[in-house]
Amino acid sequence: MIKTIYTQTESPSDIQEKAEGIASNEGKLLPVCYRCTKVPKEGLYDGFRVQGMFFCSDCQHELFTAEQGSPEYQEFMFLIY
Fold first, then answer.
1. How far lies 21's CA from each of 11, 33, 46, 67, in Å?
2. In a domain, 32, yes or no
3. How does pLDDT run across 40-75, given as a tens digit for each residue?
4. Can you give the pTM of this predicted structure?
5. Tally of domains within the chain
6. Is 43 domain-assigned?
């Protein structure tokens, strides 16, 4: 459906019903790995940031052990640059 200025907006009770079905995260902000999109077990301390992107320790290990010119290394270079 295309929304226009004539589209009816939801009532406050409809919005409240939808909000009740959403689980809260209790104000916790968790990092997500830019490469594998997983939340690391140790949070912000389980990885590193480069150019505003967070990489988990598993992906960090893969990067550090990848041979220069390998597909894994090229993937990281593509993501970073």
1. 16, 27, 31, 47
2. yes
3. 988 889 999 998 999 999 999 999 999 999 999 999
4. 0.59
5. 1
6. yes
